[in-house]
Write a structure and sequence with these properties.
Layout lengths: L1 H24 L1 H4 L3 H20 L7 E7 L17 H9 L1 E3 L2 E2 L4 H10 L28 H7 L3 E7 L18 E5 L10 E3 L5 E3 L2 E2 L2 E2 L8 H15 L7 E6 L11 H4 L8 H26 L6 E7 L23 H4 L3 E4 L8 E3 L3 E2 L3 H8 L16 H6 L7 E11 L16 E7 L2 E5 L34 E5 L15 H15 L39 E4 L2 E4 L6 H21 L3 H5 L1
Parallel strand pairs: 1-10, 1-11, 2-13, 3-14, 4-5, 4-10
Antiparallel strand pairs: 2-12, 5-8, 6-7, 8-9, 11-12, 15-16, 16-17, 17-18, 19-20
Helix pairs in contact: 7-9
Length: about 600
């Protein structure tokens, strides 16, 4: 009798288990079933606990090195043309990331690194922040260094900011860094630190904390920034407090001005821009060698994590190379967004390997906060995942998809809602990857495959040599980027089922987007009105303007018509954002479904 009762109980448990499994696996029912939702929350808690199990016992010292415009083919382990022995050695002894994604431009990558959020969730989905724009990283978003400060870290930033500075609250020292030394704009001269917005509007751009660092120029920026990092390491007690250093190098961004002695080893390289560019990579390599030497010298190395990453793809016409990938900086082809990156640390359990796990630049936020001992959950509005178990143990990546971006201000003159199967307006520039599949709509940017330059000069007319000339104007592309990373074979016409699924994902993400913040230039930003330097120009007591629903494009303001219900609509939009964000998490199983 007891055996029969036990058997009946076992059958009931098996039935419940099967029902539970169906709820988890079905992306259509998961968004509406509270039981499935709670089970996913349990799974999320389990994943967080699992990640915690792989964390170091003590909070490690974290050194994050970000280069500027370094292409996929601009490092020694990808190209024989480039001499980067230190970077190659650190990558080979750590974990090389070969399925790692960044954004196609400077500000977008930096904003996603610092916030752990996609651009559509910060209002920075269009272009970059220009020097005269009254815009910056949203002040209500808690940044990565702020979270690390909460965890007891001493936080320092050296190098390029490019996240806005129109008011003091936007400065690095107000966004989580105890100290800052570097440039606020997107591009400066490597020696004079002059920065121009256009041909005639120029000013000095080197800052120490919240003050202009007059008199500290004259030295090549990579050397100057390296010197500052070594000084921080030399004066900090490695045993008393964990350290976070964000070294955001200007190199290898234009202008191409390396010291002559670094060009000489590349004298046999025919193309002059490529020769200078390669020399600048070698200077970066030397800088990383000096920094890792200092880590060992001052007792940081044994409990340190060094992360190396580019911010976007290279520009082939100015010496860089993304070969054999398609596209360049500023595009959503793989050449613009698949980044060079690696992690080096004695704390990694399974070292000396190449990882092809899917990782995105937003993942560093929860990963580093997790390493610091903080508690990060997907329910805090983050789009990133804690990938430390993936890096350290070789576990499967928790990330199944990446929203590369949705830019409603960037539209092409062809495409339609009809072309998007009634799900998506294909005039809008957008890109998403789910599993092996990548979908692009609108204008992804110039889709060239440019081999490394070998001629003395590279005529701009040759830029179009290998471009595919479409018989009809396209606004939708689909690629299996796992099997076709160079994006040679468009499968949109052959797999309409996948196209529809990914278009639906774009539409779902778009419902969580906040208005684009891209205001017109402010004449008060002119350096001549601010002592000859780029610095904050809006007073601290001046009220923040409400940019909800205001867009700026091609030199003109574009405003929605005012209505009495605008505030109410804004409230419900924010409420909808929270609801839709949860639905996106709930339906993340689509990544498994599409593979």
């Amino acid at each position: 009798m007891s055996t029969l009762i036990e058997l009946q109980l076992l059958l009931k448990w098996m039935a419940l288990f099967v029902l539970f499994g169906l709820l988890i696996l079905s992306p259509r029912t998961s968004a509406s079933c509270s039981d499935a939702r709670s089970s996913r929350e349990d799974a999320e808690r389990f994943r967080v606990e699992q990640a915690a199990a792989f964390r170091p016992k003590r909070p490690p010292h974290i050194i994050f090195i970000l280069t500027d415009d370094q292409g996929f083919n601009d490092i020694g382990y990808h190209s024989r043309d480039i001499r980067s022995p230190t970077l190659d050695k650190l990558a080979s002894e750590g974990v090389r990331l070969e399925n790692y994604y960044v954004q196609p431009l400077c500000t977008p990558s930096r904003s996603q690194l610092i916030t752990g959020r996609y651009q559509i969730h910060t209002g920075l989905q269009h272009s970059i922040i220009r020097p005269r724009q009254p815009s910056c990283l949203p002040l209500d978003v808690v940044t990565l260094p702020q979270r690390l400060q909460e965890a007891g870290y001493s936080t320092h930033m050296v190098g390029k900011w490019h996240l806005g500075f129109y008011r003091k609250d936007c400065l690095p020292t107000r966004r989580g860094f105890h100290t800052y030394f570097g440039s606020l704009t997107g591009s400066v001269d490597y020696y004079t630190y002059g920065s121009c917005d256009g041909k005639s509007l120029c000013g000095f751009d080197l800052h120490e904390g919240e003050s202009v660092a007059w008199g500290k120029g004259g030295k090549y920026s990579t050397h100057l920034y390296t010197q500052r990092v070594r000084k921080i390491l030399a004066t900090h007690d490695s045993t008393s407090q964990p350290l976070f250093i964000f070294l955001s190098l200007q190199a290898v961004h234009t202008p191409l001005k390396p010291p002559k002695e670094y060009i000489y080893p590349y004298r046999r390289m025919g193309n002059v821009p490529r020769r200078k560019y390669a020399a600048m990579v070698s200077i970066v390599d030397e800088a990383v060698r000096n920094i890792t030497y200092a880590l060992r010298k001052y007792g940081f190395y044994r409990n340190s994590v060094v992360i190396f990453s580019t911010d976007n793809g290279a520009q082939p016409l100015t010496g860089g190379s993304n070969w054999p990938l398609r596209g360049c900086k500023g595009t959503y082809w793989e050449g613009g967004i698949r980044g060079v990156g690696f992690v080096h640390s004695p704390l990694i359990r399974h070292r000396r390997r190449v990882s092809r796990a899917l990782i995105h630049i937003t993942d560093w936020y929860p990963t580093l906060v997790g390493l610091a001992g903080g508690n990060v959950s997907q329910h805090q509005g983050l789009d990133g995942f804690d990938v430390w178990p993936t890096i350290s143990e070789g576990k499967e990546s928790p990330r199944m998809e990446i929203l590369h971006n949705i830019d409603p201000l960037h539209r092409r003159s062809w495409g339609s809602l009809k072309d998007g199967y009634g799900l998506w307006d294909t005039t809008v520039q957008a890109a998403i990857r789910v599993g092996d599949w990548k979908l692009l709509t609108g204008d992804p940017g110039h889709g060239d495959w440019v081999p490394p330059q070998v001629l003395t000069n590279f005529p701009s007319s040759w830029w179009h040599l290998e471009r595919q000339i479409e018989k009809k104007r396209k606004s939708v592309w689909l690629f299996n980027v796992t099997g076709d990373p160079c994006e040679r074979h468009d499968l949109a016409a052959h797999r309409p089922d996948v196209v529809k699924e990914l278009l639906a994902r774009l539409a779902l993400y778009n419902r969580t987007a906040i208005p684009v913040r891209y205001p017109p230039d402010d004449t008060r930003a002119n350096p001549s009105l601010n002592g000859g330097a780029w610095r904050p120009w809006v007073s601290e007591d001046e009220e923040e303007e409400n940019w909800d629903g205001i867009y700026y494009k091609r030199g003109k303001n574009r405003k929605r018509k005012k209505c009495r219900l605008c505030k109410l609509q804004s409230f419900f939009k924010k409420l909808n954002l929270k609801i839709m964000s949860k639905q996106i998490q709930d339906s993340s199983a689509i990544g498994h479904h599409l593979q």
